[in-house]
Design a protein that fits this description.
Length: 474
C-alpha cells in the first residue's frame, strides 16, 4: 500500500497526570455544543482513506477529516477494546479504573464519565452500539465481568450489546464461523444481543449492523435537537465476525473473500457516518455539534497477519504494545470552529476526550482536582496554540493467568515497552528516528532504559493507588 509522504514523526515531552474533581457543576447552558463520539472496532491505522489506503472506500470519514482535523498520531489507551472504551469516557488510564483486558471487569460507578458530567449540565445522553465495559443484561452469568450497563454511568438512553456481534445480521452466527461456542446459523448469544433501555431489542436487527445502530442514533438526535445532547456511538465494525452485505462486497470485485467482507464492512460503517453528517446538516445543527472519530485499537491479529487488515507502515497489531497495536485512525469535525484541513502530529489519545469535552462545554472539573485525570485538552493543539503535550503517555493491558502483562510509556521521543506476552522483555525505541520500531536500543542505551523503566514504575504505582481505592469514597 502506498501511504502519503506527509507521514512525519514528531513527538514531544510529557509529564505525569494532573488531578480532576468529583464535584461537577450542576448548571444548564442551552448554548453548549452537542458532542458525538464515534468509534470503530479493530480498525487499523491504515484501514481508512484519509491515512492513505487507496483501496478501502471511506468517503465520508475522509470528508470528515478534510473538513476538520486529522490526528496523525492518535493512540488508544490499550491495544484492545474494553480498557480503551473506559478511557474514552473517564479521561483515565485503564490501570486506574481496573478494566485491564476484555471481559475482565466492568466500569465502576465511582468513576466520573463524560455522560455524567454532561448530564449534570442538562444534556440528553445516549449510548449506542458495543458497550463492553460491563454486562448490559442483569441476568448474564460469567466467570469474568459483571453487570454495569450504560444507565449506571450517566446515559439516559442506551441501545447496546455487552460485546461483539456479527457485522451483518447481528443476531445470527455467520455460516463460516467456528469460534466462541456459536454454531453457524445458530442465534448469536441467544439471538437478542441488543438491550434498549433495559429490555431486549427484538425488532429491526437484520442486515448491516452499523445501520442497525444508526437507526437508533438518528431518532435520539431528532428528539433532542432543541437541547444539547451527547451521543456515544461505538460501532462493532470491523471486529470479527466481520461480514458485509452483497451490495458492499460488490464494491471490491478484485478482492478475496476475507477482504471483500472486511473492506465492505468498513464501507458500510462509513455510509452510516455519512448518514449522521447529513442529518446534522438537515437539522441545521452541524455548526453546534463537535464529532470525534477513532478506532479502539489496532487491527485484528489474525486479519493483520493474513494481510487483510492494516496498521499502515507501523509494526504490530491488536494485543501488541508496538505502534501498530496502539495507533488508530482519528479525526474530528466542528464546522465553523475547527478550520478545514487542520492536522496535528502531536501525540493524542483516547484519554484526552474527557478533558477536551470539559473544556468545550466550560466545565471546571479538570481544574478542580481530587483525582488524577490523565488526558489533556486537545483544543489548544487543534487551534495551533500549543505545539506539544505536557505529560507522558502510558499504555497497558494485563491477563496474568496467561502471564500477559504488556505495558508501555512514551516520554518525549522515547518509547519503552514491555512485550505483551509471558516473560515479555523490555524494548527501547527512539520514535523520532525509528517510528516503525525496527531497532531495539535497550541494551545499547541501558541508562535511558532504566530511566524510563522507573517512570513506568511510577505510573504503575499511581494507577494502583487509584485502582485500590484512593480515588473513591467509602
Amino acid at each position: 500500500m502506498n501511504l502519503p509522504s506527509r507521514i512525519s514523526f514528531l513527538c514531544f515531552a510529557f509529564t505525569l497526570a494532573v488531578p480532576a474533581t468529583q464535584l461537577i457543576a450542576e448548571t444548564t447552558d442551552t448554548n453548549s455544543p452537542n458532542v458525538i463520539l464515534l468509534m470503530s472496532d479493530d480498525q487499523g491505522w491504515g484501514d481508512v482513506g484519509f491515512n492513505g489506503n487507496e483501496v478501502v472506500q471511506t468517503p465520508n470519514l475522509d470528508a470528515m477529516a478534510s473538513a476538520g482535523v486529522r490526528f496523525d498520531r492518535f493512540y488508544a489507551a490499550a491495544p484492545l477494546c474494553s480498557p480503551t472504551r473506559g478511557s474514552c469516557l473517564t479521561g483515565r488510564y485503564p490501570f486506574r479504573f481496573g478494566i485491564l483486558a476484555a471481559h475482565t471487569g466492568g466500569m465502576r460507578v465511582g468513576e466520573i464519565t463524560i455522560a455524567e458530567m454532561l448530564q449534570k449540565r442538562g444534556y440528553a445522553t445516549g449510548m449506542f452500539g458495543k458497550w463492553h465495559i460491563g454486562w448490559v443484561k442483569p441476568d448474564e452469568v460469567s466467570t469474568r465481568g459483571f453487570y454495569s450497563p450504560p444507565s449506571h454511568h450517566g446515559f439516559d438512553e442506551y441501545f447496546a450489546t455487552t460485546s461483539a456481534v456479527p457485522t451483518w445480521d447481528p443476531t445470527i452466527t455467520p455460516q463460516d464461523w467456528d469460534s466462541w461456542g456459536n454454531g453457524p446459523g445458530e442465534p448469536w448469544k441467544g439471538g437478542f444481543p441488543y438491550v434498549h433501555n433495559g429490555r431486549e431489542a427484538k425488532e429491526n436487527l437484520s442486515g448491516d449492523d452499523s445501520r442497525v445502530i444508526m437507526d437508533r442514533v438518528i431518532p435520539f438526535i431528532e428528539a433532542n435537537q432543541a437541547k444539547p445532547f451527547f451521543a456515544t456511538v461505538w460501532f462493532h465494525a470491523p471486529h470479527e465476525p466481520v461480514v458485509a452485505g452483497e451490495e458492499f462486497k460488490k464494491l471490491y470485485p478484485k478482492a478475496g473473500s476475507k477482504r471483500k467482507n472486511y473492506y465492505g464492512c468498513i464501507t458500510a460503517m462509513d455510509q452510516q457516518v455519512g448518514r449522521l453528517r447529513a442529518k446534522l446538516r438537515e437539522l441545521g445543527i452541524e455548526k453546534n455539534t463537535v464529532v470525534f472519530f477513532c478506532s479502539d485499537n489496532g487491527p485484528s491479529d489474525g486479519l493483520a497477519k493474513k494481510g487483510v487488515a492494516s496498521a499502515g507502515p507501523f509494526k504490530g497489531h491488536k494485543h501488541t504494545m508496538y505502534e501498530g497495536g496502539l495507533l488508530v485512525p482519528a479525526c474530528a469535525e466542528w464546522p465553523g470552529t475547527i478550520p478545514a484541513g487542520t492536522s496535528t502530529e502531536v501525540r493524542c489519545s483516547t484519554v484526552d476526550f474527557l478533558p477536551t469535552v470539559a473544556s468545550i462545554v466550560g466545565d471546571s472539573m479538570v481544574q478542580k482536582a481530587t483525582r488524577p485525570i490523565d488526558g489533556i485538552d486537545l483544543m489548544p493543539l487543534i487551534r495551533g496554540e500549543a505545539k506539544d503535550r505536557d505529560r507522558d503517555l502510558f499504555f497497558g493491558y494485563r491477563r496474568l493467568y496467561q502471564g500477559i502483562d504488556g505495558q508501555s510509556i512514551i516520554s518525549g521521543d522515547w518509547k519503552l515497552l514491555q512485550e505483551a506476552k509471558k516473560n515479555g522483555r523490555l524494548r527501547l525505541y527512539d520514535l523520532s528516528k525509528d517510528p516503525f520500531e525496527t531497532q531495539d536500543l535497550s541494551e545499547e542505551m541501558p541508562e535511558q532504559t532504566e530511566q524510563l523503566r522507573k517512570q513506568l514504575e511510577e505510573l504503575q504505582a499511581s494507577c494502583q493507588r487509584s485502582r485500590d481505592g484512593g480515588d473513591y469514597r467509602y
